[in-house]
């Protein structure tokens, strides 16, 4: 076993923050998320990503506290019991994943699959046959550690939307740096995961092993910083504008169909949510900042119509005509057949690799896994939409999931787990109950008139270590 340079940096940073200023733990953990294909530890020729190294270290550091907290779950105050549903769903996901990942490859041995360790293109005409493998245990382990992170986040250290925001900041800034610093880019330091074929510099991939993964983070960053731009103060809006400018620069150099389609879907979702909110509020208004921003975007777009057409329509057309697109489509179709042939049970994590997160979940975890994953996502997104301070994390998580469904079939992607944690476990204080007796200066309501709702900001407690 060998620990890499970045692995040592991660260990030192986590230990130092834990004992010096624990409330900053989320920033260090978030930073590791920007390096999902960089090894922190290498064991027997297999790399262990920085994020999961950080999770293991956090569990070791907080083991006594974690045992005490778990032993008191039933006696926890109401505020802590509110997270119990998500915790139970996460635990159920691990149990089911373990059952089907151990039993599935044995029950359905010999089934034709797209083996994760082999290239998709080469398997279109020569698919692998299913058999138990070390990959089943490895992928189960990553999902289990992701759920462990959900269990400790907010209990052992405070989290909020910035858990995901720190990951996105690191990803887009380093991607922009790579544009101008490619000749001196530290390939040996960052691209050290054994058996990974890292992309060449023709298309920007940032700290990731291929452009489509950077496209996922760009989609998430557009959602996160777009929400920050709308709902932050002056300083937050200025920072969001800088971040969105970096996203635009990275997007052009990335040239990823994942980012292109992901952004289009995310914009459509944002439009639907905005329309529903307008209809429910009964007020139809547009912010001046939105009008100015729309004018700037449309004006810039009108001057670059040929470039935009080539980059969007032309890129999509070339993708659709490529061998890669045909291979990815074939892997998704086969995954649907695997789902049907397995009776909706799935064949286990690490048994099949399609080109979509949705197809991966249904082919590997079946109906039960899909329901459990969907339940976690729905709980997280619903909570983010209700509480505005964590809404940017909700849009960031939505961007991650949309892009993953498009073309990043990896349930072990750290951005999924930190996005869920940021939405589910940011501290939210229940609204104070109304006093029994009105103060003399309080206005008197007529019978049947609804009481004024407390401001939404009153529902959020300050983050404390």
- Side-by-side strand order of the widest sheet: 1-2-3
Shape, principal axes of CA atoms: globular
For the largest beta-sheet, the strand count, sense and barrel status come to:
3 strands, antiparallel
Nearest-integer average pLDDT: 82
Distance between the termini: 34 Å
How large is the count of helical segments? Answer: 20
The percent range for strand residues is under 5%
Description:
- The chain contains 20 helices and five strands.
- A three-stranded antiparallel beta sheet has the order 1-2-3. A two-stranded antiparallel sheet has the order 4-5.
- It starts with a strand and ends in a 40-residue tail after the last helix.
- Helix 8 packs parallel to helix 20 (414-425).
- The chain has a domain at 78-158 and 199-425.
- By secondary structure, it is mainly alpha-helical.
- The chain has helices spanning 5-20, 25-33, 50-61, 63-71, 78-81, 84-107, 120-123, 134-152, 162-181, 187-190, 211-231, 234-254, 257-281, 288-303, 305-321, 323-341, 357-364, 366-386, 391-407, 414-425; strands at 2-3, 39-43, 46-49, 112-113, 128-129.
Topology, pairings included?
Elements (H helix, E strand, L loop, with lengths): L1 E2 L1 H16 L4 H9 L5 E5 L2 E4 H12 L1 H9 L6 H4 L2 H24 L4 E2 L6 H4 L4 E2 L4 H19 L9 H20 L5 H4 L20 H21 L2 H21 L2 H25 L6 H16 L1 H17 L1 H19 L15 H8 L1 H21 L4 H17 L6 H12 L40
Antiparallel strand pairs: 1-2, 2-3, 4-5
List keywords for this structure.
two-stranded antiparallel sheet; mainly alpha; 465 residues; 20 helices; disordered C terminus
What is this entry, summarized?
This protein has 465 residues and is mainly alpha-helical.
């Amino acid at each position: 076993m060998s620990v890499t340079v970045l692995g040592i940096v991660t260990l030192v940073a986590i230990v130092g923050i834990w004992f010096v200023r624990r409330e900053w733990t989320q920033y260090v953990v978030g930073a590791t998320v920007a390096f999902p294909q960089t090894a922190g530890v290498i064991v027997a020729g297999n790399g262990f990503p920085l994020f999961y190294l950080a999770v293991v270290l956090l569990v070791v550091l907080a083991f006594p506290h974690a045992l005490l907290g778990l032993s008191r779950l039933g006696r926890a105050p109401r505020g802590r019991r509110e997270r119990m549903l998500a915790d139970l769903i996460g635990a159920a996901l691990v149990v089911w994943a373990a059952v089907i990942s151990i039993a599935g490859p044995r029950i359905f041995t010999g089934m034709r699959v797209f083996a994760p360790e082999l290239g998709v293109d080469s398997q279109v005409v020569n698919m692998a046959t299913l058999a138990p493998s070390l990959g089943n245990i490895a992928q189960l382990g990553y999902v289990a550690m992701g759920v462990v992170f959900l269990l400790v986040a907010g209990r052992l250290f405070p989290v909020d939307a910035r858990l995901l925001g720190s990951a996105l900041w690191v990803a887009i800034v380093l991607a922009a740096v790579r544009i101008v610093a490619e000749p001196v880019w530290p390939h040996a330091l960052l691209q050290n995961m054994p058996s990974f074929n890292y992309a060449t510099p023709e298309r920007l991939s940032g700290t990731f092993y291929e452009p489509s993964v950077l496209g996922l983070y760009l989609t998430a960053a557009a959602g996160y910083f777009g929400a920050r731009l709308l709902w932050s103060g002056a300083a937050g809006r200025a920072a969001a504008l800088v971040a969105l400018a970096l996203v635009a620069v990275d997007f052009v150099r990335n040239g990823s169909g994942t980012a292109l389609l992901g952004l289009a879907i995310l914009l459509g979702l944002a439009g639907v949510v905005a329309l529903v909110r307008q209809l429910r509020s009964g007020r139809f208004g547009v912010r001046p900042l939105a009008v100015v921003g729309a004018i700037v975007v449309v004006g810039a777009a009108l001057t670059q119509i040929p470039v935009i057409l080539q980059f969007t329509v032309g890129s999509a057309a070339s993708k659709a005509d490529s061998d890669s697109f045909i291979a990815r489509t074939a892997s998704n179709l086969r995954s649907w057949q695997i789902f049907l042939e397995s009776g909706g049970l799935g064949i286990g994590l690490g048994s099949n690799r399609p080109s979509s997160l949705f197809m991966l979940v249904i082919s590997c975890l079946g109906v039960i896994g899909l329901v459990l994953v969907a339940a976690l996502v729905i709980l997280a997104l619903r909570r983010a939409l209700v509480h505005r301070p964590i809404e940017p994390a909700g849009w960031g998580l939505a961007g991650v999931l949309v892009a993953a469904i498009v073309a990043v079939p990896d349930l072990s992607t750290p951005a999924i787990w930190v996005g869920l944690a940021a939405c589910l476990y940011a501290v939210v204080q229940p609204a104070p109950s109304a006093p029994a007796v009105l103060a003399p200066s309080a206005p008197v309501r007529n019978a049947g008139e609804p009481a004024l709702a407390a401001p939404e900001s009153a529902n959020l407690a300050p983050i404390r270590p």
